[in-house]
Every structure is written in structure tokens, then in C-alpha cells.
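SAMPLE LOG
Freezer: B-3
Tube label: C17
Construct: single chain, 374 aa
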Amino acid sequence: MKIYLQVNCLLCRYLLIGLLITLSLSNRLLAKGFHGEDKPPVALHSNEQPEPFGLYLREIPERNTLENLGLLAQQPEVDVTVKGLVLGEDGEPLPGATITVEGSTAGTVTDMEGYYSITVPEDAVLVFSYIGYEVQRIPVGNQSEINVTLSVDLSSLEEVVVVGYGVQKRMNLTGAVDQVTSEELQGRNVTNLTQSLQGVMPNVNITPLDGKPIQSPEINIRGTGSIGQGGNALVLIDGVEGDPSMVNPNDVESVSVLKDAASAAIYGARGVFGVVLITTKDPERGAVTVNYTGNYGIKNPVVEPDFVTDGYTFANMFNDIFFARDGLYPQNINKTQLFSQEYLAELKRRSEDPSLPKTDLDEQGNYVYYHNTD
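STRUCTURE (predicted):
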């Protein structure tokens, strides 16, 4: 390679000579640094001068070129399109399997039939993954079609928190999910599992229906769910809907509560009021273990109301309240029981005389009742 320079100015000529000397020294340094020996620098020749003045550089050795020194930009990588099919161990396609390029964020997913297509560099490594299956890494090379069969990963099932569709580590949870284990439920003197959940998890309201010791309370999550109709949480025992009062608290491994729409969405409209997932313990191999717990308790109401059991007392109070509110006497007590002042007077007479019959027939042949409300 020869370079010819035409110089018409004396000052420019001296500047150019200085520049060429600098290039010559740099060439010598490069030759020493990259080849380990002293090489002759680029020579200046003045015997072959073009008109009016001319200088040219002798051809630079190939080993000192910028390309050999690694200073030129490398050629861009060639992208290839890879297609294929992702199957499971049973030969069924895996829709939604993830295919990513290792070390980058590029990727794609398989369609409903398990097929995929992705454009990647030739030296890329494809990473195939699917929930519950082992991850596979395959270099692309010169392949244009890569079919993969993923194996089931049993270790992926051993997680921490039970959620709607399986289990998940607590650190990876994104929904409003609370869980208590059997250790937190021990030591509570209760007759059923639902009562043992009272006060354990926030926003889980346990409401007893009556005072019976064996009655299973209602479970409400995050307050009122609808106007007028209310609504209780969906309770699943090992994946099957059931009554938590029928579960022995000592057989429970964990209780998870799905509170928000994101975590309970898999149950659709049935889980709009929240979901309670009860997981029972698995039997252990080895010797038989028997645990016995005995509790005895008595429940009494704190205040016992004084009920009105006399029919006339109730009817007279109803008559006075109705007149005080509307300024009129009532015509009936409910949809079937007619009411009048004559009926009230007759009810008083029969209430004061126990010997009189409590039922009678009116002029139309209808039964009239004059007894107590108890």
C-alpha cells in the first residue's frame, strides 16, 4: 500500500515531515510491542517525488496493520431463525413453555400446540423451561430446528406456601396470602378447626352462628362482600370443598387464606369472597404414633333475655306500638293472621280464663287462634 502526498507550501512541508517522523517512531514501538523484536520503521524516500514536491510511504508490513492488531471493528454476528416443538415426557405438547436466550432478556413462548420460533445469534444458547419441568440448555450452532422433550422436576413441588394452583415460596408471593401451620394452632382449647383460626390471621373474621359448642362459625374475609346477600369464604380441604368443623385440628398441616382477587382468581366466581385452603398431614413411615388430647368445657350465655310467651301481652304491645307510630290500629299481624280490636278483647278474655278453648271457628268457617306465642 503506497500513499502519495502533494505539498506546495514550505511551512506545510515541514509540518508534514514532523508528522511522518512521529508515525515512524510509533511504527517502531508497535513492532517491538507486538513481535518482540526490533523491526525497521517506515522509511521515507525522496528519490521518487511527484511534481513539484512529493513524498511517499513504503508499504507497511502486513503484520503491523490495524486489522492484525485487533483495532478494526469485528464483523457483526449472523442471526438465524430457530423453530421447533416442545413436548413433555408423555409426548404431549407443552403450551406456554418459555424459550429464552441465555444471558439476555430475549425470548418467546410456545403456542397451544407446543411450537415456537425465535431469531437468535449463531453462538446463542437456548434455555427451555416450563413449570414443574427441568430446565434444558441447548447451543444453537448451525441448527435451524430444535425439538425438545422436557422431564418432570419432582423437586419443584416441594415449596412453602399453599396457593390456589399449588405451592409457592413465601418470598415470591405477589398476592394477599396468609398461612398458619400446625405449630401455631396447637394449645388452643377449641372443638373445631374454624374456632382455632380466630385471632390468628388479620382480616379473617370468625363469626359464631349460635352458642352451640360444636357449631362451626362463619368465615368472612375482609369484611362485607356484597350488599344484602353477604357471602362466606370458599373452604377447600385437600382440594375438595368441605366443612372445616369436621376436620380434626390435630390432623391439619397448614391453613392458607387467599384474600385478594389475584390469588383467588383461579376459582372464578366461587372464590369472590376469599378462599380457605386446608392441607392435612401426610402419614409418616415407621412406627405408629398415637396422640390424645382431652378437653371439657361449658358455655353459658352471659345475659338471658326475658322472653314474652303470653299471647295477649305480645298482641297488646304490638297494638300500642302500631297505633303510636301510624295513628291507626293494625288490620293484621302478618300476612295470614288477621287482627282487630274485637280479636284483642277476645284474646284477653281467653287468656284470663284457661278453661276456654284456644281455637275456634268464625262465621266464615275459618280457624281463629287464641293461644300463646311460645
